Amino acid sequence: MQIKVKTIDDTEKEYIEIGCYKRDERVDEIIRFVKLHQGSIEGSKEERKYRISLSDIYYIEAVDERTFIYSGKDCYESGKRLYEYEELLAERSFARISKSVIVNLMKITSIKPALNGRFLCRLKNGENVIISRKYVPGIKERLHGE
Amino acid sequence: MNERVKDILSGFFVSVTLINVVMLILGKILGPNQTFGYEVFMYPLIYGFIGAIPGIVISGKKELSVSQVIIRKIMQLLLIIVLMFAFMFGGKPIDSELVTVAIFVSISIVIVFVLVNAILWWLDMRTAQNMTDDLLKYQQKRLNRQ
Predict the structure, then answer these.
(1) Domains, chain A
(2) Per-residue confidence band for A46, with pLDDT thresholds at 50, 70 and 90
(3) Interatomic CA distance for residues A95 and A76, integer angstroms
(4) Is B41 exposed, middle or buried (0-12, 13-18, 19+ CB in 10 A)?
(5) Number of domains forming the structure of chain B
(6) Rounded to whole angstroms, how far apart are CA atoms B123 and B101?
(7) B137 and chain A: CB distance < 8 Å anywhere?
(8) Contact A137 B64 (CB under 8 A)
(9) What is the residue range of B110's domain?
(10) Residue of A nearest to B141 (CA)
(11) What pLDDT shows up at residue B31?
């Protein structure tokens, strides 16, 4: 496979393009590598360990002392506590939105008020997660500070 | 400022404004020739405070489902009516005139209660819309940077 690197203007968005005859295991491996380079965390599913790319994660939830990482279609368990992820992902596009959830801000499509004084985040996969009122000022500051 | 205190204060001030309007309308209907001293300016504040008490007493830190919130709101409304009646008519003999006033007052309380909640909902809608707009800008900036 030939490798071409082209320098582009800084007004353009950086990209990686793969030219291939068909998408196979080899191409998927390159994609995984690139995604991992953008950041990843470890999670387990059915006793197997996986590296989950940050860009694939929708949200991280703590349920009864256990922590779960939700990607578009899979759910992984993690040994880390939610506050550890909060610290770990502080510089990335993740934000704490309630006592039990950290969401990937890049995966939110819209925010709407819920009847119970909270806010509802609609995610790109159609799921909804709740923003507690307590965390609203922090999220606003985060969105403005960027 | 704490979000709960902010909510209580905004509810209080919206209530006081609407109570002023209700007092004007009810006064025109029930006692158009009645005159008052300056102490009348205190009444919307007192009624607003009485109206805020159930919200302070009933609400807790626990996050509720939508149906639980509706039940809580109904309880809150009933409590406001009881407190208002106790303050306005406590110790007075029950006659037909008092019953008429009580009916008007009850209807007014329900209208004010619904309007206050509708206005607070509208304010939440605006907050959610602003947050969604900021979020889209944030996402665009992050995408451009990647």
Answers:
(1) 25-145 (2.40.50.1020)
(2) confident
(3) 19
(4) exposed
(5) 1
(6) 32
(7) yes
(8) no
(9) 3-145
(10) A146
(11) 82
Give the highest mean pLDDT range of A114-118, B12-16, B52-56: B12-16
Tell me the nearest-neighbour CA distance from A79 into chain B, angstroms: 26
Q: Quick one: A110 exposed, middle or buried, by C-beta within 10 A (0-12, 13-18, 19+)?
A: middle
Minimum distance, in Å, between the CA of residue B146 and any CA atom of chain A:
6
- pLDDT tens, B127-138? 999 999 999 999
| Distance from C-alpha of A140 to C-alpha of B4, rounded to nearest angstrom | 17
| Chain A residues in contact with B133 (beta carbon < 8 A) | none
Is B7 within 8 Å of A134 when comparing Cβ atoms? no
**Residue of chain B whose Cα is closest to the Cα of A91:** B142
Residue keyed to tokens 């997660």: A129
Nearest CA-CA distance, residue A6 and chain B, Å = 16
* CB–CB contact B7 A133 (8 Å): yes
List, for residues B52-104, the tens digit of each pLDDT value: 888 888 766 666 777 888 888 899 899 999 999 998 888 888 888 888 888 98
Mean pLDDT of chain B: 86
What is the structure's pLDDT at B125?
93
Q: What is the pLDDT of residue A69?
A: 94
CA dihedral sign of residues B61, B67, A95, A79: positive
Q: What is the pTM of this model?
A: 0.71
